[in-house]
Design brief:
Layout: H1 2-22, H2 24-31, H3 48-55, H4 61-71, H5 92-103
Helix pairs in contact: 2-5, 4-5
Length: 105
Protein backbone atom coordinates (compact mmCIF):
# COMPACT_ATOMS: atom_id res chain seq x y z
CA UNK A 1 0.00 0.00 0.00
CA UNK A 2 2.80 2.44 0.89
CA UNK A 3 4.53 1.74 -2.42
CA UNK A 4 1.34 2.49 -4.33
CA UNK A 5 0.95 5.82 -2.50
CA UNK A 6 4.57 6.74 -3.13
CA UNK A 7 4.23 5.88 -6.83
CA UNK A 8 1.03 7.91 -7.10
CA UNK A 9 2.68 10.91 -5.43
CA UNK A 10 5.71 10.61 -7.72
CA UNK A 11 3.53 10.43 -10.83
CA UNK A 12 1.52 13.46 -9.70
CA UNK A 13 4.73 15.42 -9.14
CA UNK A 14 6.15 14.45 -12.51
CA UNK A 15 2.95 15.26 -14.37
CA UNK A 16 2.63 18.66 -12.71
CA UNK A 17 6.26 19.48 -13.54
CA UNK A 18 5.79 18.55 -17.18
CA UNK A 19 2.52 20.49 -17.29
CA UNK A 20 4.36 23.57 -16.03
CA UNK A 21 7.04 23.19 -18.71
CA UNK A 22 4.26 22.83 -21.29
CA UNK A 23 2.75 26.16 -20.15
CA UNK A 24 5.44 28.83 -20.45
CA UNK A 25 3.05 31.58 -19.31
CA UNK A 26 2.51 29.73 -16.03
CA UNK A 27 6.26 29.13 -15.67
CA UNK A 28 6.95 32.85 -16.27
CA UNK A 29 4.34 33.78 -13.67
CA UNK A 30 5.71 31.31 -11.12
CA UNK A 31 9.30 32.49 -11.67
CA UNK A 32 8.28 36.11 -11.06
CA UNK A 33 8.91 37.37 -14.62
CA UNK A 34 5.50 39.01 -14.74
CA UNK A 35 6.37 41.26 -11.79
CA UNK A 36 8.53 43.34 -14.16
CA UNK A 37 7.41 42.37 -17.69
CA UNK A 38 4.10 42.28 -19.56
CA UNK A 39 3.23 40.97 -22.99
CA UNK A 40 2.77 44.27 -24.79
CA UNK A 41 3.89 47.27 -22.71
CA UNK A 42 6.90 48.35 -20.71
CA UNK A 43 6.50 47.88 -16.99
CA UNK A 44 9.79 47.83 -15.06
CA UNK A 45 11.47 45.94 -17.88
CA UNK A 46 10.69 45.75 -21.58
CA UNK A 47 7.58 44.03 -22.89
CA UNK A 48 7.92 40.53 -24.25
CA UNK A 49 6.76 41.90 -27.61
CA UNK A 50 9.67 44.38 -27.64
CA UNK A 51 12.14 41.67 -26.65
CA UNK A 52 10.87 39.43 -29.45
CA UNK A 53 11.23 42.27 -31.98
CA UNK A 54 14.79 43.08 -30.87
CA UNK A 55 15.97 39.47 -31.17
CA UNK A 56 13.91 38.50 -34.24
CA UNK A 57 15.90 36.41 -36.71
CA UNK A 58 18.86 35.84 -34.40
CA UNK A 59 19.58 32.12 -34.42
CA UNK A 60 21.25 32.21 -31.02
CA UNK A 61 18.51 34.26 -29.35
CA UNK A 62 17.30 31.50 -27.01
CA UNK A 63 20.81 30.84 -25.70
CA UNK A 64 21.64 34.56 -25.51
CA UNK A 65 18.45 35.49 -23.64
CA UNK A 66 18.65 32.46 -21.34
CA UNK A 67 22.14 33.58 -20.36
CA UNK A 68 20.90 37.14 -19.72
CA UNK A 69 18.07 35.83 -17.54
CA UNK A 70 20.47 33.65 -15.54
CA UNK A 71 23.11 36.36 -15.02
CA UNK A 72 20.88 39.42 -14.83
CA UNK A 73 22.31 42.82 -15.71
CA UNK A 74 21.52 46.33 -16.90
CA UNK A 75 22.16 48.57 -19.86
CA UNK A 76 20.41 46.76 -22.71
CA UNK A 77 17.00 48.31 -21.99
CA UNK A 78 17.96 51.18 -19.70
CA UNK A 79 19.65 51.42 -16.36
CA UNK A 80 17.16 49.48 -14.22
CA UNK A 81 18.90 46.17 -13.52
CA UNK A 82 17.33 42.77 -13.91
CA UNK A 83 18.38 40.53 -11.02
CA UNK A 84 19.90 37.13 -11.78
CA UNK A 85 17.44 34.25 -11.95
CA UNK A 86 19.14 31.06 -10.75
CA UNK A 87 18.04 27.52 -11.56
CA UNK A 88 16.36 27.33 -8.14
CA UNK A 89 13.96 30.06 -9.31
CA UNK A 90 13.33 28.70 -12.83
CA UNK A 91 14.74 25.41 -14.07
CA UNK A 92 16.64 25.09 -17.33
CA UNK A 93 13.80 23.37 -19.21
CA UNK A 94 11.23 25.95 -18.07
CA UNK A 95 13.63 28.80 -18.86
CA UNK A 96 14.12 27.53 -22.40
CA UNK A 97 10.35 27.19 -22.86
CA UNK A 98 9.69 30.69 -21.48
CA UNK A 99 12.37 32.32 -23.65
CA UNK A 100 11.03 30.51 -26.73
CA UNK A 101 7.52 31.70 -25.87
CA UNK A 102 8.75 35.28 -25.42
CA UNK A 103 10.46 35.19 -28.81
CA UNK A 104 7.16 34.13 -30.43
CA UNK A 105 5.33 37.09 -28.86
Amino acid sequence: MKIALICAALLATLSSASALAADPAAAAQKAGCMACHTMDKKLVGPSFKDIAAKYKGQGDAVAKLSDKVRKGGAGNWGQIPMPPNPAEKIGDADLKEVVGWILKS
